[in-house]
Design a protein that fits this description.
single chain, mainly alpha
Length: 150
């Protein structure tokens, strides 16, 4: 059921996903030592942020401030999980189209290897701090929207 808390959480976490994507792209370029084609990287992460904000943070709004902070942190880490999974699947498909894998099992294992590599690449204080701050902000704003517009 749509309500103000879900909409607020979706908007805020979608913006956080977009902004943090801008912080991750230079790290990817630094690793590749050349320019990286990001395609829809920003928009996919923003959409995932909106989806996580809607389903995880917004659906649990109205339970108090401590719960809002906890759900904000949970939402931020779920954004990390789903973002890494979707982007690693995308990279695996890109590599599979270049015949980099011998069989299907090897390509499935590559999803988790790519995701782990990218997690350790993006696990910097500015990126994780921005995600945590944005998640907490989304949780608190969703809680405020839940209390204001019932």
């Amino acid at each position: 059921m749509p309500d103000a808390a879900r909409l607020t959480a979706a908007l805020v976490l979608g913006i956080v996903g977009f902004v943090v994507s801008g912080m991750i792209v230079p790290l990817l370029e630094e690793q590749a030592e050349s320019e990286v084609y990001v395609g829809y990287f920003f928009w996919i992460n923003a959409g995932l942020g909106a989806l996580v904000g809607w389903t995880i943070i917004g659906s649990r709004a109205g339970r108090g401030l401590v719960s809002a902070i906890n759900m904000g942190i949970t939402g931020a880490f779920m954004l990390i999980f789903w973002g890494l999974f979707v982007q690693a699947c995308n990279e695996m498909v890109r590599l599979a189209m270049r015949n980099r894998f011998d069989n299907a099992f090897e390509s499935l294992i590559a999803i988790f290897e790519i995701g782990a590599d990218w997690f350790f690449l993006m696990a910097t204080v500015p990126v994780l701090g921005s995600l945590a701050f944005g998640g907490i902000l989304a949780g608190l704003l969703a809680e405020g929207a839940s209390r204001t517009w019932r």
